[in-house]
Amino acid sequence: MLTVEELSFGYTPDKENLSDINFTIYKGEMVSIVGKNGAGKSTLAKLLCGFVTQNHGSITLKGRNLADDTIKERAGYIGYVMQNPNQMISKPMIYDEVAMSLRLKGMTEEQVQEKVHEALKICGLYPFRNWPVSALSYGQKKRVTIASILVQEPEILILDEPTAGQDFRHYTEIMEFLKELNERGITVLMITHDMHLMLEYTERSLVFSEGHMIADTTPAKLFSDPQLLRRASLKETSLFELAKRCGLDSESYIEKFIRYDRQVRNK
Amino acid sequence: MSAVLSYVEKDSFIHRLTGTAKLLFFVIWSIAAMITYDTRVLAGMFFTGVVFFILSGFKWKEVRFAVFFMAVLMGINLIGIFLFSPEQGVKIYGTRHELCHLFWRYSIVTEQLFYMFNFMMKYLVVIPVALLFIMATNPSEFAASLNKIGVSYRVGYAVAIALRYIPDVQRDYHEISQAQQARGVDLSRKDKTLERLKNSAAILFPLVLSSLQRIEFISNAMELRGFGKQKKRTWIMEKPFMKRDYAAVVFAFVTLAVSVLCMFNNGGRYFNPFL
User: Fold this and answer.
1) Hey, is the C-beta of A86 within 8 angstroms of any chain B C-beta?
2) Which residues does chain A have within 8 Å of residue B175's beta carbon, measured at their own beta carbons?
3) Quick check: B181 and A70 CB within 8 A?
4) A113: contact with B, CB 8 A cutoff
5) Which residues of chain B lie closer than 8 angstroms to A90, CB-CB?
6) Is there a contact between B209 and A89 if contact means CB atoms under 8 Å apart?
7) Residue ranges making up the domain that contains B114
8) What is the pTM assigned to this prediction?
């Protein structure tokens, strides 16, 4: 669905922050983008949304080149949820915040209400619809920003660190919610530092290091390649370490752990 | 986007001056520019300022935005002067050479043009030095120098932090504006200016919120480090006063003296070529 070819970009002319990136995202995938700070993950998201313009290469969506689309136009098909919800929220009331982009499109108030209510329901915020944003927790604010992006009905959703600063309960809540969205057919790209999140929720990982994409693989394969892990400066999860020390097959052990953990949690 | 109006690390003789010397230079220079309307003095100061700027190794590209911004402010100021007192120059210089009449009470008068030219020069004298001061002074060192000339270190530190966060706030503004555009707020050049101004205001809300949050973070972090416990503190960035620092301050004082001398010589703040 989304193809990136030979993409290069630098904030300053003398240094490239991303060079020669190639990948294709297929419809309905849930992909994680991993790498240490400054590896170019967020820059990639900004390029996809048109916040910055590439020096070289192309981004195509369903065979159409996006080069001439403005930020506003791209937002119709690629939604980007920034890491810090405070940078996105601009209205004091939750309802108005989510309704903003629809009102700007000139929809009637009934149409707006229908869509906003639907998005708020999906995000589990419907009971709070008339609350002020300031009364919400960080995690809830995060969901408000996701709702305000969802009303625009993007086909691809990019999330920058969706679970940063969340405790385990909210982490699970957000991730299960994203999984649900994914099952509804929205393609999800997640930028993350959380190795467990990557293992548990995504089937495919793009690994970035120093502005290069050094791997496009499954999370399990990534963990079984210590050299690749070191190059990406990623840390093995403690589960992986535990499996190794006990002399177990780490891949199947982690898989079993996650499955069991889910069973227990869903009780 | 490059940061506008923030410290840029470089190695030039201006960067090597201590923060205190630069602060004193900037203050004295501004006073000298403020008290005089003498075209000759202002022209001399303007060229000196530009020479300093060139020597500092900054490129036009780095300050272009800031200069344009100030030029716009200056333009508004000048238009204001013309609208509210179109005959100010006549009052000051005592003669009236009308070039052509416009309408009602407005006409183009040589004296007024000369007065406004001098006014503009005052801006132009201060702009390069102010830019240099902001862009060539490390905020931490600036705090140290404020403290050195007798300002409480708490105040000095507050000012330094404000300077330190200019680039951060600018980056926030930029990111918020992009996020707003992605939500359908149009800020691109395609839209009407009035509409764009109105939409820019929408950015202020999240910007203020995120700045307030930052204040909370920083004050907590500072408290954890025991900021403000003692009466005095030391500064890692403090530099000893060198010969070149004395030279810079002396140079500023000489400029001030010239400016004051000319004032006595002209019998007032204005240099009058019309008599």
Assistant:
1) yes
2) 82, 87
3) yes
4) no
5) 176, 180, 202-203, 205-206
6) yes
7) 1-137+240-275
8) 0.68
- Pick the last residue of a domain from A153, A168, A200: A153
A153: Cα separation from own chain's centroid: 15
User: Across the beta sheet with A30-34, what order do the strands follow?
Assistant: A78-81, A156-160, A187-191, A30-34, A204-209, A212-217
Number of domains in chain B: 2
Mean per-residue pLDDT for A178-186?
88
Shortest CA gap B171–chain A (Å): 11
Q: What does the pLDDT average to over A170-198?
A: 86
Yes or no, beta carbons of B183 and A75 under 8 Å apart: yes
Interchain contact, A89 vs B184, CB within 8 Å: no
Tell me: the pLDDT tens digits for B139-194? 888 888 888 878 888 888 888 888 778 888 888 888 888 888 888 776 666 666 77
Same-domain check for residues B111 and B20:
yes
Task: Closest CB to B179: pick one of A88, A104, A152.
Answer: A88
pLDDT(B198) > 70: yes
Contact A89 B186 (CB under 8 A): no
Put simply, whether A77 touches B (Cβ < 8 Å) is no
B interface with A, Cβ–Cβ below 8 Å: 2, 172, 175-176, 178-186, 188, 190, 202-203, 205-206, 209-210, 213
Q: Given an 8 Å threshold on Cβ–Cβ distance, is B205 in contact with A91? A: yes
**Residue A82 domain-assigned?**
no
Residue A240 is assigned to a structural domain of this protein: yes
Instruction: Note whether B184 contacts A72, CB cutoff 8 Å.
Output: yes
Q: What is the pLDDT of residues B55-80, one digit of tens each?
A: 888 888 888 888 888 899 999 999 99
Residue B210: which of A87, A91, A152 has the nearest Cβ? A87
Q: Is residue A52 part of a domain?
A: yes
Specify the number of domains making up chain A: 2
The tokens 């960080």 sit on which residue?
A138
